[in-house]
Design brief:
Helix content: 10-25%
Structural class: alpha+beta
Low-confidence stretches: 1-36
Shape: globular
Mean pLDDT: 82
Number of domains: 1
Largest sheet: 10 strands, mixed
Order of helices and strands: HEEEEHEEEEHEHEHHH
Number of helices: 7
Number of strands: 10
CATH topology: VC0467-like
Distance between the termini: 46 Å
CATH architecture: 3-Layer(aba) Sandwich
Length: 222
């Protein structure tokens, strides 16, 4: 199993394999005149919240944590609110028996495993995204800790696949109002109710955004 961050340069240099920018919704966003988080720029450790008219299989009503963002190399993120109804060791047989949930991180490299955790130096090679939240690190050490029952599902999140943007692609989507950028917390990443994360995040962002949470998933039904 590869380190959670060893794929970055190779994949971003092959932009044709990254997901394509959404072509836009059939229904134009009704929210362009609402207040925006104007001072929030996409950076590592920030969240992307999709606007409700983004009708995309992977990214519709998604919350994405940015783990890498470089102007020249591109951007990598993990979708936080797309749980898969399988356990980790049902997919990755090398892992000890465990009850850890598994999430869909995005459409790129779905055959590979990525992870976020709060274990810090217990997993050498980890990268701190925000205080107390890390990604990547030595997979063999993490497997050892899990095998010794020293890690709980509240301390780590596992993902298959990731989300990728080529250089300047995310900024273009920001201008098209596909995303809103906001702050991240550990509680957001290790949410007990990931299926409600998108709507809960919008409600926490204030009345201007709370209305999005009630927007129908299919605007034609409105």
């Amino acid at each position: 199993m590869n380190n959670g961050k060893d794929f970055v340069v190779k994949v971003l240099n092959n932009a044709s394999k990254l997901r394509k920018s959404p072509k836009g919704s059939d229904v134009k966003s009704l929210f362009y005149t609402m207040k925006e988080h104007k001072h929030n720029k996409p950076t590592s450790g920030k969240l992307l919240i999709s606007e409700p008219a983004l009708r995309d299989f992977y990214f519709g009503r998604s919350v994405v944590l940015l783990v890498e963002h470089h102007n020249k190399e591109g951007t990598i993120g993990l979708i936080l609110n797309k749980p898969i109804h399988l356990k980790l060791n049902q997919v990755v047989k090398e892992f000890p028996d465990n009850d850890f949930p598994l999430f869909l991180g995005g459409p790129v490299h779905p055959e590979r495993l990525f992870y976020l955790h709060t274990l810090g130096d217990k997993v050498p090679g980890s990268i701190e995204l925000i205080p107390g939240l890390f990604w990547g690190g030595e997979i063999n050490k993490l497997m050892e800790l899990i095998g010794l029952n020293l890690v709980t599902p509240e301390e780590v999140r596992f993902f298959i696949g990731y989300s990728g943007w080529e250089p300047d692609q995310l900024e273009k989507e920001m201008k098209e109002k596909s995303w809103v950028v906001t702050q991240c917390s550990i509680d957001t990443v290790i949410s007990r109710h990931p299926e409600k994360l998108w709507s809960n995040m919008l409600k926490e962002m204030g009345n201007d955004y709370a209305i999005w949470a009630n927007f129908p998933s299919d605007p034609i039904l409105n």
